[in-house]
């Protein structure tokens, strides 16, 4: 059955059940197809993806105490509305979206972006793509009144949706915006956990996108293996990796940690202009996004031949990883998996928090 329905209709009954079907295909290898749309292979179905994500958010909302979700986290905005602008948005807290009851999502964006959504994001109601502006992390002070205006606008929409007496789940916002929401009459509660519940179960399209994102990093690591030699700086590898990822279609290279030699322990989570030397070990962590689906993908290299001590350490680490992988199955929690690994104290750290923070 075709799960695509007119955007002016609510998804109910059988349509809702179809929309929530993740369409998994565990009977064969998870694909990492080409990134283009073609007529001869079924690849990512973006209509299905958008419908699934919105219905997952609605289901999580229904299962919570909230009557609505007011979202400022750009990952959550994209999940619910499938809208995206440049990565400069990420720390501005200026875009927001509302999912109230069973109503269609409403997005507030920079004026020109809102017009763009009306033209090109036809899964949204045109009137639900609104111009909006908040504080840009305090650059526009609350005294200007933008936050007050939008808080009152949202409260009016909650009344229209019949959920004004229910708590509003907010993921994150400027402190001043929280105050204005409360002044407008809203009971604000944590909405981030509601959204994380929604995002927890990936459908087949999301899994393919994650696999495509990982395949991009596969190629970058081969390039790093070819380029990594004495005399090359960590920062040079980072530059080459950024170039290659953006050429392959990455929408955000969030960070590339490049750590070599004596900098390897403890992990500093950065890169420098350090020059790689013969005999060094070097490890990398590539954090990048393809269509909003992100990687955090490590690999370790030797500059020259590995020593017997390094080989022994590798075998030990590989055994720990294999033991953990053997435990991975539905219903197993991370504390069970972690029990097969050494404790932080065995590495000289006072606690797990001090060792890595997980």
Task: Describe the structure in your own words.
The chain is 40% helix and 14% strand. It is an alpha/beta fold. The chain has three domains: 13-199, Creatine Amidinohydrolase, Chain A, domain 1, CATH 3.40.350; 202-305, Creatine Amidinohydrolase (Alpha-Beta Complex); 309-358, no CATH class. The strands form two sheets. A six-stranded mixed β-sheet has the order 4-3-2-1-5-6, with helices on both faces. The longest helix has 24 residues, at 204-227. The two termini are 43 Å apart.
Here the CATH topology of the largest domain equals: Creatine Amidinohydrolase, Chain A, domain 1
What is the number of domains? Answer: 3
Assign an overall shape: globular
Overall pLDDT score: 93
State the total count of DSSP E strands: 10
Helix-residue proportion: 25-40%
Task: Give keywords.
358 residues, alpha/beta, Creatine Amidinohydrolase, Chain A, domain 1, Creatine Amidinohydrolase, six-stranded mixed sheet, four-stranded antiparallel sheet, 12 helices, 14% strand
Can I get a quick summary?
Helix content is 40%, strand content 14%.
SSE map:
Blueprint (H helix, E strand, L loop, with lengths): L12 H7 L26 H17 L5 E4 L2 H8 L14 E5 L5 E4 L1 H10 L8 E3 L14 H16 L6 E3 L4 H9 L4 E3 L1 H8 L4 H24 L6 H15 L3 E9 L20 E10 L2 E2 L2 E6 L5 H20 L6 H5 L13 H4 L3
